[in-house]
Task: inverse folding
C-alpha cells in the first residue's frame, strides 16, 4: 500500500477536516486547517517481509525528534541511597542497534527460512503503544499519558525518571537518561535520576495531520497507519496472502503496533538479538488484567493526577520567572 493511501486512511480515522480540502495526486495538503476529534485509535501495520534494513526510518526518527532529546547537566548529583544507577547515553548518541534515550527506533535482525530458503529478516522495533498501556496507568507521577488517538507518550517535563514505566512494560521499552528533567530542581539526591524516553509516535506531526517520520522516510512502504480496525483488516488479509503470522493484535491485551511476518514469531524470537534495549517477540498476557495492577492503577490515578498538576504548576512558575 502506498504512503499516499496510508496518509488518507490516517487522516480519515484521526481528524476531521475543517472547511473544504483540495485533494490532488500528491495527497491532502497538511497546511489545511484541521480540527482534532476523538476518533478510533490509530494503529500501524508493519510488513516484515518488505523491510530491507536500510535504517532510513531510524535516521528520520532521530532527525525529526532531535529537539526532544535530552541535554544533561554534568556533573550528575549523587543519589542517596545509591539505589538508582547513573544511565548516561549522552556520549553514545550514535548507537542505533538498540533503544536508547537518543534512539527510539532500531532495526532488529533475524535469520529464518521463508518458503524453504534461508533469509535474513529485518524488523523495525519501537514502542508497541498498547491499547491499555501499563506505563500510563501505573506511572506514579502522571508523566505518562495516552492521547485520544491511542498513542502513549512520556512528558519529559514531568517525568522524574523513576523507571516504573520500564518495569511494567512487557518489552522494557523506555530508557533513562541521567542528569536531565524536573528531579534536578526538586529532589536531585532522592528522585528517579533522570527522565525516561521512548517513541511518542511523532505526536506533534500527527497533531498537524502529518504521518510519523519513520513512515514518511521508508522507501519500501513497510509501514501503514490508519484506524485500528482497518489496520487489523489489512493485517489479516496480508497474513492470509503470505500464509503469515500476526503479532500485536492480542499481546498485552492488544497494541497499536501490528506486525505481519512470513514466519512464526516464536521462530523470530529464537533468532533475534534480545536484551536491554532490544525487545522480544514472546507472547504477552494482558498485564492490566491483573487484579493487583488494576488495584494499583486505581490507587495511583488520583495521586498521579495531583503530581502531574503540581509538576505543571511548578513548570509554569519557572517559565514565568
Result:
Amino acid at each position: 500500500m502506498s504512503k499516499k493511501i496510508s496518509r488518507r486512511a490516517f487522516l480519515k480515522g484521526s481528524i476531521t477536516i475543517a472547511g473544504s480540502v483540495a485533494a490532488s495526486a500528491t495527497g491532502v495538503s497538511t497546511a489545511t486547517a484541521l480540527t482534532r476529534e476523538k476518533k478510533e485509535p490509530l494503529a500501524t501495520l508493519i510488513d516484515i517481509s518488505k523491510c530491507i534494513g536500510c535504517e532510513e526510518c531510524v535516521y528520520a526518527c532521530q532527525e525529526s525528534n532531535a529537539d526532544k532529546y535530552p541535554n544533561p547537566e554534568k556533573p550528575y548529583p549523587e543519589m542517596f541511597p545509591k539505589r538508582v544507577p547513573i544511565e548516561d547515553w549522552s556520549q553514545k548518541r550514535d548507537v542505533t542497534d538498540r533503544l536508547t534515550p537518543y534512539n527510539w527506533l532500531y532495526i532488529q535482525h533475524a535469520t529464518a527460512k521463508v518458503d524453504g530458503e534461508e533469509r535474513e529478516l529485518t524488523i523495525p522495533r519501537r514502542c508497541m503503544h498498547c491499547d491499555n498501556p501499563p506505563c500510563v496507568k501505573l506511572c506514579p507521577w502522571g508523566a505518562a499519558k495516552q492521547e485520544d488517538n491511542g498513542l502513549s507518550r512520556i512528558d519529559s517535563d514531568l517525568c522524574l525518571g523513576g523507571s516504573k514505566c520500564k518495569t511494567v512494560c512487557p518489552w522494557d521499552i523506555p530508557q533513562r537518561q541521567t542528569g536531565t528533567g524536573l528531579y534536578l530542581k526538586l529532589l536531585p539526591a532522592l528522585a528517579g535520576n533522570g527522565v525516561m524516553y521512548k517513541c511518542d509516535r511523532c505526536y506533534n506531526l500527527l497533531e498537524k495531520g502529518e504521518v510519523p517520520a519513520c513512515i514518511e522516510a521508508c522507501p519500501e512502504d513497510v509501514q501503514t497507519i490508519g484506524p485500528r480496525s482497518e489496520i487489523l483488516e489489512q493485517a489479516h488479509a496480508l497474513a492470509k496472502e503470505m500464509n503469515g503470522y500476526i503479532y500485536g493484535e492480542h499481546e498485552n491485551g492488544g497494541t497499536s503496533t501490528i506486525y505481519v511476518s512470513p514466519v512464526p514469531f516464536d521462530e523470530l524470537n529464537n533468532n533475534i538479538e534480545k536484551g536491554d534495549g532490544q525487545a522480544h517477540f514472546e507472547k504477552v498476557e494482558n498485564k492490566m488484567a491483573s487484579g493487583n495492577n488494576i488495584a494499583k492503577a486505581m490507587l495511583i490515578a488520583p495521586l498521579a493526577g495531583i503530581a502531574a498538576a503540581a509538576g505543571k504548576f511548578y513548570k509554569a512558575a519557572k517559565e514565568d520567572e
About this structure: DSSP finds ten helices and 14 strands in the chain. Confidence is low (pLDDT under 50) at residues 1-38.
